Amino acid sequence: xxxxxxxxxxxxxxxxxxxxxxxxxxxxxxxxxxxxxxxxxxx
Amino acid sequence: xxxxxxxxxxxxxxxxxxxxxxxxxxxxxxxxxxxxxxxxxxxxxxxxxxxxxxxxxxxxxxxxxxxxxxxxxxxxxxxxxxxxxxxxxxxxxxxxxxxxxxxxxxxxxxxxxxxxxxxxxxxxxxxxxxxxxxxxxxxxxxxxxxxxxxxx
Lengths: 43, 152
Description:
Order of helices and strands of chain A: HE
CATH architecture of chain B: Sandwich
Strand content of chain A: 5-15%
Structural class of chain B: mainly beta
Radius of gyration of chain A: 19 Å
Oligomer: heterodimer
């Protein structure tokens, strides 16, 4: 009941844009980790 | 039921074709059915792989926000749990959506956090005063890529 009542209110209000944002035209998603969130040169 | 669900206008409201959130057959709650005994389900779940590697799961959607869905109910491991990693390009944002089930967000990466904005609004607290859940989110990172994990 808890689950299904919650789902009544799920809704997409604005879909994802299908075009790049200004300044993000050449963005490529990082499929592989580059630095595991640590700088290569260390801290 | 609502007849407008099959119209092109209604489909446009859901999202662009081919995008994850445009799917009409998503499983939000995985069913368990069969005999009056869950031992077989317990055995099945325990036999499932315990590690899901990022290299085996590709990002989908884009070009502003990409999603890597690590686990969701259709994978046969969880009943409700859904974990996905989002990566946003410069200035990117996700779809604006609402749900009153609980969600947790972890920002993993990104720079210039002062200009990173997460918009969130609370659920229908007037209807269920005891709920204080996140209902809608979108994120914007004007300068650099940004990653976050979203659990719900």
